[in-house]
Amino acid sequence: MTTAPPTKTSKSLARPAQASEPAASYEAALEELEQLVAQLEAGQLPLDQLLERYQRGAALLAFCRDRLEAVDKQIKVLEGGELKPWDAT
User: Fold this and answer.
1) Dihedral pair phi/psi, residue 30, rounded to 5°
2) Which class is 26-78 in CATH?
3) Chain-centre distance of CA 29, in angstroms?
4) Is residue 21 a contact partner of residue 8, using CB atoms and an 8 Å limit?
5) Which of the 8 DSSP states describes residue 13?
6) Which of 34, 18, 37, 29 is nearest to 67 (CA)?
7) What are the DSSP calls for 63-89, one per residue?
8) How many CB atoms lie within 10 A of CB 60?
């Protein structure tokens, strides 16, 4: 008898995604990371859940850093390798 995997709602904080699950996007990873930080800072989690959330946070942080680095490299390629100042106007 097989059981179906648990469904995950977008705002469910009861069980975070596993550390090995990739984030859907940079924005989703950042949102989940912010939620994890709030949970960790609250200091109300049992030790095993604290460790799980810390590990997931570390994985999300690495994902976000990798995405930012990839975008930075793309910008440098588009600008011919020359870093130019940002002009928001």
Assistant:
1) -65, -40
2) mainly alpha
3) 3
4) no
5) -
6) 29
7) HHHHHHHHHHHHHHHHTTT--------
8) 25
Name the token pair of 84.
């130019």
Displacement of CA 37 from its chain's centroid (Å): 11
**Helix axes 26-42 and 47-78, enclosed angle (nearest 10):** 150
> CA-to-CA distance for 26 and 66, rounded, in angstroms?
10
Q: Give 25-62 pLDDT, tens digit per residue.
A: 999 999 999 999 999 999 999 999 999 999 999 999 99
Q: How far apart are CA 32 and CA 34, in angstroms?
A: 5
pLDDT in tens, 17-33: 565 677 889 999 999 99
Per the listing, tokens 């699950």 go with: 21
Q: What pTM did the predictor assign?
A: 0.65
Tokens 């109300």 -> residue: 44
